[in-house]
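Minutes, structural biology subgroup

Action item carried over from last meeting: produce the structure token record for Short-chain dehydrogenase (Spumella elongata). EB confirmed the sequence was re-checked against the source entry. Recorded below for completeness.
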Amino acid sequence: LEEAQKKHSQLIIKACDLESEDDRESLFKWIQTEHPDLNVLVNNAGIQHWANLDDADFMKKTRQEISINIEAPLHLGHLFLKLSEPKIIMNVTSGLSYVPFA
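Output recorded by EB:
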């Protein structure tokens, strides 16, 4: 992102751990304060772990996938609907939920 910012000086970078509800809310508060005219949200983060049901950390990995792939886009959409009109929410996915790693 920093390389892209060097080429595009108006690009704004803000780090956010999408797994963290607190970070998502902090991001939204930052947007409300710094960019209240924002009217487009693109949800484009996603992860998928290689895991077997008998892995010791299976549930940890599963919770992380659910938090980032499902909970975060829903939560951010809910928050960002509070901003100005018009609103566009674009969800970009890989389709791995339909054809997961086996």
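Discussion: Residues 44 and 93 are 7 Å apart (CA to CA).
Next step: EB to file the record with the rest of the batch.
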